[in-house]
Amino acid sequence: MKKILKFLLVWALRIGIGGLFAWSALWKIEDPALFAEQVTAYGMLPDVLVGLFALVLPMMELLAGLMLIATPWRKEAALVVSLMLVMFIAALSYAAMMDLDISCGCFGDETGETGRAYLVKTILRDLALLFPSLFLLFA
Amino acid sequence: MKLFGFNIIVLLCMAALALVLGVANNFRVYKERRVPLFEAFEGK
Fold it and tell me: Residue A111 has what pLDDT?
């Protein structure tokens, strides 16, 4: 019974997190220039790296999401997803600490919300995703 | 080839594929919108 529950939980998380990552990557792939503008707003990367980052990160997200759902390399995909989430949390924390008035750039234009309260909400959402992805990594 | 229980080849292939697809996407955007390579992505 426990094995079945674990199996179902692992698959639900794989599909949920993998689908979310693949879906969130799609708009960034469609409009890399907008994503690059959002990355620039964080002020954490030198200008020369922003372009490459805005092109490669969404592809990494898409590949990790699809790998999590449809390949046997669950742990590798979960590692990449977890590292990306840690990176997002670090970037969002930096933006919240510096009181930057920016959109998180997670799912496109979103609601146009900005500000510290919004960034904290986004950090909590990413933390809520980090724990299940760590579960997938170590389960 | 495994390191800390992770298949390094898979991780390297993933990174290489992301790089290739990212650059290919850059060409797609350039073809569709005639935006010079990388220039539009530097947030200037």
Answer: 65
Structure tokens at A40: 């620039």
Whether chain B has a CB inside 8 Å of the CB on A49: the answer is: no
Contact A29/B at CB under 8 A: yes
A35 vs A107: which has the higher pLDDT: A35
CA atoms of A57 and B38, how far apart (whole Å):
15
Count of domains forming chain A: 1
Q: Are strands B2-3 and B6-7 parallel, antiparallel or unpaired?
A: antiparallel
CB–CB of A123/A97 below 8 Å? no
| C-alpha torsion A104→A109→A113→A117, nearest 10 | -20
For A2, A28, A100, B22, the CA distances from A56, given in Å and listed in that order, are: 39, 10, 24, 5
The alpha carbon of residue B6 is apart from the nearest alpha carbon of chain A, in Å, by 6
User: Can you give the residue range of the structural domain that contains A19?
Assistant: 2-138
CA distance A22 to chain B (A): 13
Distance from CA of A118 to the nearest CA of B (A): 23
CA B16/CA A139 separation, integer angstroms = 27
A38 → chain B, closest CA residue: B43
Mean pLDDT of A97-123: 78
Note whether A56 contacts B: Cβ–Cβ < 8 A: yes
